[in-house]
Write a structure and sequence with these properties.
By secondary structure, the protein is an alpha+beta fold. It contains 11 helices and 20 strands. It has helices at 2-9, 118-122, 124-134, 233-246, 250-253, 328-337, 352-357, 360-367, 369-379, 430-440, 465-469; strands at 58-62, 77-81, 85-92, 107-115, 141-143, 151-155, 163-168, 174-180, 200-209, 215-229, 263-264, 266-267, 388-394, 404-405, 412-413, 421-425, 448-454, 460-462, 475-483, 490-494. The strands form 4 sheets. Strands 2, 4, 6, 7, 9, 10 and 12 form a 7-stranded mixed beta sheet that branches. It has a 6-stranded mixed beta sheet with strand order 16-13-19-20-17-18, with helices on one face. Strand 17 and strand 18 form a beta hairpin. Helix 8 crosses helix 9. It starts with a helix and ends with a strand. 28% of the residues are buried.
Length: 495
């Protein structure tokens, strides 16, 4: 096994890099297994600047060749085929005496495939949900268990399609074979053919066990940049890059780094596993795959931002508005109440003031056009304008008529005051009129047999959809009720 690893991992680095090779602790690999990190532009400002003195406890090496068309000081780029198994070797890189508390114990590693582009990282949850919708039952990342060596207690979370976790012993030979099932062009905005696919990252985060038995104490993280092609596409792309480089002059070739047979994952910050993270939906602060209640994502109801016409048909009250003084918890409750549960994790650290500061363009970019506009309208309390408004009054009985005082001469009269209810119709249909009348006047809907309109000479005309469509906006009606001929229920007569 050592001969295979040595042949696959050893690179002919310049003598100036030889000092990066590290002394191996008590492990199953020889010193040649531990590679010098390839030179690349470090973009993570959170990492220590004195990288030359930092000694990583682990090293992860993916058995896939790097592209030769990468500038000398840029990060390496590796092409992968969709669904093909690629080995990631988990190497113990500790010096003697480093992290002695894990000697003879297992550590946990989580492997993820995530977006490389910062812009896509902000909308990663929505991007992955869209992929899940188009590829039901598929995962973005899988572990090829039969080919893997030394991995224990493998777990995948159904709600985290882009991550797998397992335990392993650093003192033993360990290799995890991964399969990436998403391709880079699936997340390209416009698909007219020939688009440049978006890059991904393969990231490995390793943790040790705490006193309470959970693997939440972070030890090491490393990642690499990849692009995923359809089967055999990565081989063709690698060949194309190699042929392009062969056509360059010797002087131009000096600006590019050579292609290595394997890809060394470079140190990075741990994947942010907070409630705002779009990939790992675990509610715990540490990167663990705990059993948690996850939201069931579905296409939001288009009527969720419509006014709730109940009772007198008025729109939703001011209590449904999100106020700037709302706390984070109150903001979360508001999102859930208005059917924005898909975005509760995205806005988990937003107070009412924070959410209200977002512009329409911000929300469209974060949530997509449909949900972004819907959320913006809900935040601004923009109700859907009804298609038709009518005013209806139940003809009062003599016993409940109110006396009005004549303001001019003080004489009293027995004139009735007619109190009207506003009925807002979202649909121009007779059934909508019946339903809204029942709501406005507390009439059991099942007891209304028919709705008629009183016509010329007192005839009763059945209210149909076509008649409703010809109602004038803000028309006024009196209505009375008469018992049905069979004695069951009653009819409503609009006058």
């Amino acid at each position: 096994m050592d001969e295979v690893i040595e042949s696959g991992l050893v690179h002919d680095f310049d003598a100036s890099l030889s000092g990066i090779g590290q002394e191996l602790g008590a492990g199953a690999y020889s010193m040649s297994d531990v590679l010098a990190l390839p030179i690349f532009k470090q973009e993570d400002s959170n990492l220590p600047q004195e990288n030359e003195t930092k000694h990583p406890p682990f090293q992860y090496v993916m058995c896939a060749a790097t592209s030769p068309a990468v500038k000398l000081y840029d990060e390496t780029l590796t092409y992968l085929n969709q669904g093909q198994s690629y080995e990631i070797r988990m190497l113990d890189n500790r010096k003697a005496g480093d992290i002695p508390e894990i000697n003879g114990k297992l550590v946990k590693s989580i492997i993820r495939v995530v977006f490389h582009d910062r812009r896509l990282q902000y909308t990663e949850h929505q991007q992955l949900e869209g992929w899940k919708w188009n590829r039901p039952g598929d995962r973005l990342l899988d572990l090829d268990i039969p080919m893997s060596v030394g991995v224990i207690d493998i777990k995948t979370n159904p709600s985290q399609l882009n991550a797998v976790e397992f335990l392993w012993d650093p003192t033993k030979c360990t290799s995890a074979f991964i399969q990436v099932h998403c391709i880079s062009t699936e997340f390209t905005p416009r698909k007219h053919g020939g688009e440049k696919g978006v890059p991904f990252r393969i990231q490995v985060d390793t943790f040790k066990q705490t006193e309470n038995g959970e693997y939440t104490d972070h030890l090491h993280s490393a990642s690499c940049q990849i692009k995923v092609f359809k089967p055999k596409g990565a081989d063709r792309k690698q060949k194309t890059d190699r042929e392009k480089m062969e056509k360059r002059t010797a002087h131009e070739k000096e600006k590019y780094q050579p292609s290595y047979d394997t890809t060394v994952l470079t140190e990075c910050s741990p994947w942010p596993d907070t409630p705002t993270t779009f990939v790992n939906n675990s509610p715990t602060p540490a990167p663990t795959f705990t059993s948690a209640q996850h939201n069931t994502y579905s296409v939001p109801d288009s009527n969720s931002s419509s006014p709730n016409h109940q009772g007198d048909g008025t729109s939703q009250g001011s209590g449904d508005q999100l106020h700037p003084s709302a706390t984070i918890q109150e903001t979360q409750q508001w999102l859930l109440k208005h059917r924005f549960s898909t975005y509760t994790r995205l806005f988990s650290n937003f107070s009412g003031a924070d959410l209200l500061k977002l512009t329409r363009e911000d929300l469209v970019q974060i949530c997509g056009p449909a949900d972004g506009i819907r959320l913006y309208n809900a935040l601004k309390s923009r109700s859907v304008r009804p298609r038709l408004t009518i005013y209806v009054c139940q003809e009062p009985l003599r016993s409940i008529q109110l006396e009005r005082q004549d303001a001019g001469n003080g004489d009293s009269s027995n004139g009735a005051i007619y109190v009207y209810h506003a009925i807002y119709l979202e649909e121009m249909a007779a059934s909508e009129v019946t339903r809204k009348l029942a709501l406005a006047f507390n009439i059991p809907l099942h007891q209304i047999n028919q709705v008629y309109r009183q016509g010329p000479t007192g005839i009763h005309i059945l209210v149909s959809d076509q008649m409703v469509q010809n109602f004038q906006d803000e028309s006024c009606f009196l209505f009375t009720t008469i018992k049905a001929e069979n004695g069951e229920g009653f009819h409503i007569i609009l006058k």
